[in-house]
Amino acid sequence: KPLEAFYSISGATVTLKGSNIHTDARHYGPGNDDSVGLYNEFTLDDFVDADENITFSSKHMGCALIELESRYAPLLPEDRKTDLVFGLKDFVFSHEPSSWRFDVTEELNGRPQVVDFTEDTTGAPHDVAQSHISMYVNEVGHNMELVENIAAFMPSSRAVAYYIHIDKPMAKDETVELLVNYKEHYEEMRERRGYGIANIRDGAKSDAHDITRVRRNLKDRFLVEESILKFTEDEIRQVVDFFKRRVCGGLKDATSKLASVEKDDPDLLRQCIAQRRIHWLSKILKTRFHALLGRRATASLPFIDGSDVEESIFQRDMLVFVHGWPKKDPRPEYTGLGTITSISKDKHNRNVFEVSVSEGKYIESVPEAVVTVPTLEDFKDQPTRMKNSWIKWNKEKELPRMRLQVLKGLDDFKWDPSFVWDISAGLVTGSSSEMQTKILKSLRWEISEELLFLLTKEKRLYHPFDIKLWCPISVTLLTKCLHLIADYLLMGRDQEILCKTFMGFARDAANELRNIINENGNTKNQASSHVSSLAFVEKTDSQETINVLVAEAVHVDKLSVEDYLSDPQLLDLDWYLTHQIILAAHPLASLIHWGDSLYSIEKLCEEVGLEETSYLNFYTSQEWREWRPLL
Prior knowledge:
The chain is flat. A hairpin with a 2-residue loop joins strand 8 (102-108) and strand 9 (111-115). 25% of the residues are buried. The strands form eight sheets. A five-stranded antiparallel sheet has the order 18-17-16-15-19, with no helix packed on it. Residues 22-28 and 297-310 have low confidence and may be disordered. By secondary structure, the protein is of the alpha+beta class. The chain has helices spanning 83-92, 127-130, 187-193, 197-202, 210-228, 233-255, 266-294, 384-412, 418-429, 434-457, 472-491, 495-518, 528-532, 561-566, 573-589, 601-608, 614-619, 622-625; strands at 3-6, 13-16, 35-36, 42-43, 55-56, 66-67, 80-82, 102-108, 111-115, 138-139, 150-156, 159-164, 170-171, 179-180, 319-325, 334-345, 351-356, 362-367, 371-372, 536-539, 545-552, 557-560.
């Protein structure tokens, strides 16, 4: 079927007709049984057997790069995304899409373009990608024993392809693993997977370590929020449209079947996290959207308050298209553009217009039935200025409805915890599968991330899980309390039981701390493992890592664990109780609205056995008492 394109400026119509078009490139050649080559253009008779001693290298005369496949990506139209949309998709799917992305030089919708062959509902490579060899090419990373032999080039401004480059000559029947180097920009992904420079040299853990992953993700959340709070209204609309059309439906379908899940499924685990992250994103997007709307005249928002029906779409001074009027009149019928100059009612209370047309002429008593809103096609013979003016007006007219769609879309992203209730019911009865238990654990950490983000943003908790500031006992207490509140938010729990359990965690941590400090504090019998539970990590001037204890905080009297074990002395119990128990537990408690009598910082101090001290007086200042609940 011919393709036609109309050029409004010149008025020309271009028709494209096909000739000798092949519907499948694989059938380009004769298609015999012995046809070979990308387009079946050769037969086996075109080749001769190689000598036994022949070798191949890309540096040999007549040899060069070998194209592995026609392209690495994009493989489907939806593989092309703006960097803005891809960045949020990557965050939602726990950075799995970043493992497969490439940036290209061509822009998309006026923004940098990313090609990404992962499913928009799972974040994992789609079926088409899995059928291509390029997906299975591994990366050399920082392993000096691995040799890079794949080069990534762009055969066009919107595509990436892999090419084999063999440096060292290969003998006949010799095999080699194909390896690519993603260079420096892939380092963050290497660290998350455990083979980056920081992992190798500094012992940094991969994302398999929960606390390390949470600390990385906290930084990501602040970057994501900073980015969203700079979005324009149109950028928010693009993001909402993408997630609504391409992502959310698949997530809801997948999570609705959790009750019957038995086998391990990384994609499903990622989808459960994604559903929670979209909810988290929607709150920031909504904050930004309302901030943008607040800067504009409220007159442009008639649909936001629910009155989404107007009496008439036609207004005075509006451009319209008149279809054959007047009829049964000595004057010839007019069909074309005009401007409404006045609106009145006929005897049946229907709108009739006075319309001005070209050359200063007017048409009177034009019924609404013969008037329509113009389309771009109606402007093909009109001045560009008139067309642009109409486009601007039409966009402003559609804004209220578009804004309402954005707000409704954001509401649709709201978290639905029903699938979690099914899992929790299985836990109670002991019928939950290993996969369901794993999902609940991951969601517990996900909620914990959100809580830490709130506390850090509100400056209530500083550098959570940082081993330079928090000792292992405090880290364990923080983890237990986070998970306790996360379970409360995920599955619901009686507040009295919640408070009692929370206080019990704090009391147990304080008793453990007190026992280590008091037990044999003046002898050399303490086990190193016990004392290390109170230690912080510091670096000496020579960058050597040591574990230190706080013997007396006022004058910053610290000593290493080794020095303490060789010459024990009493540690500063009040400092530890205040800075490692109260300062870890109370910010978390401040998230919740407890009512009038369930919780207070005084009750927490009493629970851990901390009497009034100069440390505590400082931290129970008016600012702490005025903290409002955040949940």
